[in-house]
Amino acid sequence: xxxxxxxxxxxxxxxxxxxxxxxRKEALIIDPSVEVNTEEYINYLKDNELILRFIIETHTHADxxxxxxxxxxxxxxxxLQHKNSAxxxxxxxxNEETLMLGDTEVQFLYTPGHTDDCIxxxxxxxxxxxxxLLIGGTxxxxxxxxxxxxxxxxxxxxxxxLSDSTKVYPAHNYKNQINSTIGYERAHNPRLALSHDExxxxxDAHHPQKPDLFDTAVAENSK
Length: 223
Ligand SMILES: [Fe+2]
Fold this sequence. Notes:
By secondary structure, the protein is α/β, with parallel strands linked by helices. Helices cover 23% and strands 29% of the residues. The strands form 3 sheets. Strands 1-2-3-4-5-6 form a 6-stranded mixed β-sheet. Bound molecules: fe (ii) ion. Fe (ii) ion binds next to loops.
């Protein structure tokens, strides 16, 4: 199994990824955003002679508009989202399950908390954590059926059980960091230093400003 991860960063720090099975030349895209020119994704696929199989949303995004439909229009790929997502445009509703991308196993972990339709995606020694686990932080829990309790359990029961060397690729980063590891986050992420009760109290009281595009993004991404 040989896979390659290409990260795409929007000017506002939204991260999307194309992961490819380099031998079988099949690919999937995670969290495509209109803030990245769709041609950039398509050109990357063409340049590397990749067939896009899956378009995966880690959750219904509230801060940017997905380009899943645009990418789908130019490829043969199917849109995959957790079954709790409100969108009727998904081709497959995910639960905890495993799919194959060429010879590469793609494992979906249900990780509610930031929203109730959050998934993380484990591929080899990498995990794509959406807004469940960020570099040095976690997603907020105060809208879209979020739950601080669920987020705590998702992080500790689904992510922190992975090996310390597992690379962490989040959906956002505003500091130009590329990735992290489970071990680094366990040691340095301040939210992971909190006990269960401290975490729940802290997150329940955490109400940062709503994202600029909140109303438009949620409505558009829930179609
Ligand atoms: Fe989010």
